[in-house]
Fold:
Amino acid sequence: MTIGQRTREIRLSKGVTQAYINKKLGKSPGWLNNIEKGRRSIDADELKQIADILDVPIGEFFKTETVRNMRNKKTGTEGR
Structure:
């Protein structure tokens, strides 16, 4: 999972729109959409700003698996 995909996942879980984040950061209407779709990169400062808006630690953007998936891999029960 990319940082953009993870950003989208976190944003949706918090019920926040792309438009809200774009407006808070003074970005163009398609800015966050392009990041989430992998068409634009994001720098560390921008990611920190998004983390602050979403009220999550920046490390959340680098998590690619849920705890459940990690447990399943350890026990050999993936996909069950």
Q: What stands out?
A: The two ends are 21 Å apart (CA to CA). The chain has one domain: 3-75. Residues 2 and 76 are 25 Å apart (CA to CA).
